[in-house]
Amino acid sequence: MRNDPPRVQPLDYPSAMEDLDRRLVGLLLADGRMSYTDLGKATGLSTSAVHQRVRRLEERGVVTGYTAQVSPDALGLPLTALISVAPFDPSAPDDVPDRLRHITEIEDCHSVAGVESYILKVRVSTPGDLEDLLARIRSAANVSTRTTVVLSTPWEGRSASAAAGEVS
Amino acid sequence: MRNDPPRVQPLDYPSAMEDLDRRLVGLLLADGRMSYTDLGKATGLSTSAVHQRVRRLEERGVVTGYTAQVSPDALGLPLTALISVAPFDPSAPDDVPDRLRHITEIEDCHSVAGVESYILKVRVSTPGDLEDLLARIRSAANVSTRTTVVLSTPWEGRSASAAAGEVS
DNA sequence: ACTGAAAATCCCTTAAG
DNA sequence: CTTAAGGGATTTTCAGT
């Protein structure tokens, strides 16, 4: 694989997180409504200890919130696409995200290193809606677009962090 | 924008979802730990009614679960990349997702229409880890890769569905 | 389908060791 | 971090409309 040069510091990056914290995060990723009591049973900790740790995780910004997982299909948004955008005028100040933020069909907005400046993930109902959306994006941000249609999604949102909470 | 031909059926697609359901989904997207009591207060429904509707939303597969939102940065995974993969041998049966599923760094896996077959979203700690990951992906699935590094993410996971739950 | 209330349960919080 | 316990809130059910 890779020829590891010796590291100056044998540290793991910011990730100074204990094993218990990782387990808790993993459990909350799997079920964000789990009670502190149940989290305690699953980790062997007392309810109070879990409460403390989860609160700290929230304060440290490791856990930023909780949300329902919703099926776009069931919501009538069966068409997903990835859109690369490039500004028509590269000399203009780059406020593309600000100009696009109000467009709710855009689920993700990444600034990327490459020929194009941003990659968006969008969800719509029909090809016609996609056509409309592209027009809105182009005119709102003065960009050209290159669209890749998603055919299917074997998996999504699997939070790499979940590996941290795996049962060993 | 687009020249709408008259629709054969003036239906809204599968989305036969009432306004109340949309509001509930929106609220649960914003706070997945909200209690039925509070959901009731927010929608003007009784606790029981909320309970019924949320249960039905879960049964219908609209709400598929609940999860904590976790900051990859805080977890020590500050480097995100999008990887397009294309099979070396296009005649071989396409079991790329199965071959990649065990690689936990891969958060999303989309099958796409385009020159390349799949687009992956991955998270790692360092460029070195990305290098390793790419090698593992290539050898596990016998594919070539094209990697786009994410510089920053103005927003992510904004669930287009949230628009449904907006305050009018 | 929603309301309202009652019952049972569970949860959070605090305190003390 | 644990145990213990109080008080409170929440889930869940059920009958009624």
From TrEMBL, chains A, B:
Residues 17-78 form the HTH asnC-type domain. InterPro entries: ArsR-like_HTH (IPR011991), AsnC-type_HTH_dom (IPR000485), Dimeric_a/b-barrel (IPR011008), Tscrpt_reg_AsnC-like (IPR019888), Tscrpt_reg_AsnC/Lrp_C (IPR019887), Tscrpt_reg_HTH_AsnC-type_CS (IPR019885), WH-like_DNA-bd_sf (IPR036388), WH_DNA-bd_sf (IPR036390). The keyword Aminoacyl-tRNA synthetase does not apply. CDD domains: HTH_ARSR. The keyword Transcription applies. Gene3D superfamilies: 3.30.70.920, Winged helix-like DNA-binding domain superfamily/Winged helix DNA-binding domain. Keywords: DNA-binding, Transcription, Transcription regulation. This is AsnC family transcriptional regulator. It comes from Terrabacter tumescens.
